[in-house]
Amino acid sequence: MASTEANVEVQQPVKKSFKKSMYRGVELHDLLEMKLHNVVKLLRSRQRRRFSRGMQKKYDTLLKKLKKAKADAQQGERPKGVKTHLRNAIVLPEMVGSIVEVYRGNEFVPVEVKTEMIGHYLGEFSITYKPVTHGKLGVGATRSSKFTSTT
User: Fold this and answer.
1) Percent of the residues in the chain that have a pLDDT greater than 90, as a whole number
2) CATH number at 20-125
3) Is the pTM of this model over 0.85?
């Protein structure tokens, strides 16, 4: 009996590796170390054109506020949300992990920026309309419901 127990291998539990955050084949930590003009080369043409025409001060201000909110957050906690009306701001690698509250016309919608969002506009994650939810039909809405009793 001891010989059969010796043949059984003790298997170590398999460690699950975290999914690597990548954008266009480049890992997130490499993107964070890259200079902005190298990151821009990875973006799609519309976003590259936007950066080639120059960035306005309000976008730099948004980035500074996001960095400050990240720095002020405790280790392991989510950073405080930064409110903005800049729906046309392009998500950059520095924004990943931040919470941006994007204005949608009547309220601010909190958006937690993830790696998959790099290169998209902030407005894409905060829809400006309320999606239609179709409910049940009312009495008299169809021909057959005219003849049913309402009592």
Assistant:
1) 50
2) 3.30.860.10
3) no
